[in-house]
Write a structure and sequence with these properties.
single chain; mainly alpha; 77% helix
């Protein structure tokens, strides 16, 4: 009997590709054919999940690299804005101190210290405060940079949320692929038993020929 318990999903798929059509060719027994259909369906399900895993993994990798670079850039720009507004207040520019309090009521560190998804709500709040602060006359001196920063903050938040969604998708597909692998393993084991029965045991010529087709699969 071919060993199924210790095989990887790649090996199981390779075995299914050999064993299923050969079982059909060797026997017209209804039970063998039914087991062959089950194994074929299980292999197809696993192949589709593996393709999904590759797709969502690529999506996650793309989102992750974009988030990391954008976060560093935004932290620098937000820090520069905080220092600039404070400098304008120290210089005596009217309403600059009020603008600083509007934008950073809890200080700069409260906004830029968190990272990743923990920073999303803080950047959303900052973007909202930037929109409100745009009505202050002093803010007009900082345009169009303030508007650009607001748009980039919101874009960062959207990308980060997409990354988290991709992360969840990767985890879900991995769980499904693990379950599908076990389903294929059971289906091949059942097919093995049916071929053995139809071939009058493991010593029968038909069974030996069938099992030999995957002898080198690892």
């Amino acid at each position: 009997m071919p060993a199924y318990a210790d095989k990887t999903r790649t090996a199981l798929l390779a075995m299914a590709a050999q064993l299923v059509p050969l079982a059909r060719a060797l026997s017209a027994d209804p039970s063998v054919l039914d087991a062959a259909r089950e194994a074929e369906a299980a292999a197809l399900d696993l192949e589709l999940l593996i393709a999904d895993r590759h797709s969502v993994s690529r999506a996650f990798a793309g989102h992750a690299s974009g988030v990391s670079a954008a976060e560093d850039s935004l932290d620098r720009r937000v820090g520069a804005l905080s220092r600039l507004v404070s400098a304008l207040a120290d210089f005596g520019v009217a309403e600059a101190e009020g603008l600083s309090l509007d934008l950073f009521p809890d200080g700069l560190e409260a906004v830029i210290r968190p990272t990743g998804r923990a920073q999303v709500p803080l950047y959303v709040q900052l973007a909202e405060r930037l929109g409100v602060a745009a009505t202050r006359p002093v803010a007009a001196r900082l345009e169009p940079e303030l508007s650009a920063l607001r748009e980039d903050l919101l874009s960062f938040c959207s990308t980060t949320q997409a990354r988290e969604s991709s992360r969840a998708s990767v985890a879900s597909v991995l769980v499904q692929a693990a379950a599908a692998t076990e389903t294929l393993r059971r289906a091949l084991t059942r097919l093995d038993r049916e071929v053995e029965r139809a071939a009058d045991g493991v010593r029968g010529e038909l069974y030996q020929r069938w099992a030999a087709s995957v002898r080198g699969v690892r």
